Amino acid sequence: MTDLLHDHPSQLRPVRELFNLDVDMQVPVFEHRDEHVPDIDPNYCFNPDVTLAILAGFTRNRRVLLQGLHGTGKSTHIEQVAARLNWPCVRVNLDGHISRLDLVGKDTIVLEEGKQITRFQEGIVPWALRRPVALIFDEFDAGRPDVMFVIQRILEQDGKFTLLDQNQVITPNPHFRLFATANTVGLGNVTGLYHGTQQINQAQMDRWNIVAKLDYLPREDEISIIQGKVPRYNDARGFELISSMVAVAELTRAGFAAGDLSTLMSPRTLIAWAENTEIFGDAALAFRLSFLNKCDEAERPLVAEYYQRCFDQELVEPQALQLTAI
Amino acid sequence: MAASSHTPQDAAAEARRQQRLEELCAALIRAQSAESEVRYRGHRLEWRGKAYPLRAPHLQLDSQQDDWGSCRGVADAIALRLRHHDGDLHRHWLPAPPVARLVFELLEQLRVESLVPAHQPGSRRNLHHRFSAWSNRFLASGQTESHLGLLLFSLSMMSWVQLGGGPIDEGTEHLIESTRMFLLREIGQPFGRIRRHREEQAAFAEQAQAIALTVSELVDDLQQQLADGEQDKEALEQVGKSFGLLLDLNGDGDEGGGEAGGAVARFSDGEAAYRVFTNHFDKEWQADKKVRPELLERLREQLDLRIREQGLNLNGLTKKLRRLLARPQNDGWRFGEEEGQLDGRRLSTLVTSHADRRVFKQPRDEWHANATVTILVDNSGSMRTHMGHIAMLIDLLVRALERTGARTEVLGFTTGHWNGGKPLKEWQRRGRPANPGRLNERCHLVYKGADTSWRRARRSLAALLKGDMFREGLDGEALLWAEQRLLAEDTDERLLLVISDGCPMDTATRQYNNQDILDSHLIAVADRLEREQRIRLCALGVGLDLSRYYRHNQLLDLEHSPDNRIFDEILALLGRTLRGPHAG
Q1: Could you tell me the residue range of the domain that residue A238 belongs to?
Q2: Is A311–B121 a contact, with Cβ atoms under 8 angstroms apart?
Q3: Domain coverage including residue B456
Q4: Does A83 score more than 90 pLDDT?
Q5: Which of the listed residues A49, A268, B186, B578 has the most CB atoms within 10 Å of its CB?
Q6: Where is each Cobalamin biosynthesis protein CobT VWA domain found (chain B) (predicted)?
């Protein structure tokens, strides 16, 4: 841990080489892989625009907010970029239970030489600020207002952070980076899909230098990701099957956008469907178990129609689903 | 009425089935084409607020004869057309002669159908099924026995095969063989090219136009050559009819994407053009003031008895409504937590028992519906027969909604007299000026206001059962009234549920104005509300399909007493309405 305090990116590498993107840009890369550096997923598909936005965050110290529907892989995207730069990463999920004290730090009672004494224990924010790490706030729009104001202070690039109770001023490490991911663009729960999200203060939104939107991947990429996760379908027949699955997912997303469905199929569900198909050997059964049963009963006929289009097969609702021992 | 025969029930069931099928097809088209503004309005397909013409013959469905597979095929075909078709380009190349138009439209439709993606084998099958079903019907109708019929049929089949359809069965192959050879001599060159250009509409249209014009000339020649031309002209008309094409060509439907605002303008004109001759006699009443207290008490007892006998699941209904309407809200605290904010009242615990660290509190999320729901009941004469069931339905809805935390209003609308009352007389006295506008006195009834709880409004709600106030209905104005009341509410979500069994009706107004004055006013108001989305609008049609007026609507079958199934249908409708179309 001590070496992390003094570590810094020691070399510049071309983006072309690292990410196969056609731009003349050099990015700073750490020499050593610290334990905080995420693992590299060799099958990961980078979205060019979003990758550039994240790289700008790393090289030029921009504050980057990634926005997109659930399952589009926002946090993973940042992590995978960091993994290739050997940049240490810390993820904090800003659900409604994270309090201001969790972030800043609090006095705790510890035993020292048999005596109870109170000691200030630093929260994640001062810890990260002192080190060359990328701090990622997940579910940024679900954070409580008091938490948001803590973050607002460190959103400024060279904003010094004051620990009021400690009379300490922390100057951020020059290689501290800040990212966030959110399901909404700070507008709160407009679609009814994301309960618990809040409207983000405009002053807060203004402090993000880059806001990038991550949509679902193009179908070819999505297919190859699933094929990567479920190697059994890594052939021509598997391609056909996965292609139909992705087609169903696309229809559910379009149906959601048109207001006909209240559930949509994220890549995560798609992968689960493919894996379950491998287990049960039956795409229709796996579909019912991994997606259809999550849908509102009234919407199931429509989902069955989607299924018919993509699989040329009727999705009959079984009276009672009996699972035999696997 | 129920005893007369099974027919009305069958008809109602059939209408509900039809509505469900249309909804399913429209939803599918929306998903496949990524066009959210596709819907059926009064059984006709509408795109961006305008009728969407189906100009290719095989897209004309016959609800009596065609099966579900055909419906699916047509839905897929329309979705493909919305996706791959450019209306401006199409109009640019569209030839003038009727026969040429017919051929050109058919070719264009087959072109977009040939673009069905490979990963949708089901759509491919549906399209194939539909085209085969249509060609079989055409064959069976015997129209291939005339020269013209055979010519057009052969061309359709050839084009279908050329653009990736088929295979054709042997008998048909045999039938069209000689015509096919003859046609190929005339249109061979452009016909050979259409397959190559199917992905570019402009290049395709150039070839298709050439084919269409040649075929049109051939048809003209054929007519002149034949001595009994008279008979064949008739046959041509026949063919045209069965192709369902020539008639529709001059119709109002225009798929011009550029002038999508036209319909909207027309609708809002409808709202602006609506006039009221005088609102001097209009009234707004508290419903319970119009019924004697003793009678009201008796009516309430009747209603309570009915509800008790019905055995409806109020708790279940409340739960489902809560799921629809309620949102988590920071409301109160959870005490005795191991972390969070310090709870002052428990500080003593820290002193008395060191180990117990449950001295914190955390904010708690309560599910609470911050919504106002207005139920607007049509109090027209024909509703009287259904009022027993409807009152029960409303009473339960109000109770369940109130339990979720939502505010509710129950409003009614009718007219003061049959066939125009005092305004009509006044109009006559003033010398009958032209286009007077609404000529009856408007009556609005408040059964329950948003500020009144169900307990206090219990008796007043029973006034729904007193049918002698029920006369005619001015739906458009009632919507405006309900809108105003809803907008005055301080709430997150505003929902307006209309219950009606017919179109707006006031005999005098209709007689002395444009026939459709009330209709178009209602359509205009509903359309504006749906577009503005400040309030969510939906409608329950009692035995009547209201899709002509309301985007979100549900046919209600009140032949039987309301049961839990009916509430499920209503909940599904509310769900659809609340969801609305989302942005990307």
Answers
A1: 219-311
A2: yes
A3: 283-322+370-546
A4: yes
A5: B578
A6: 359-555
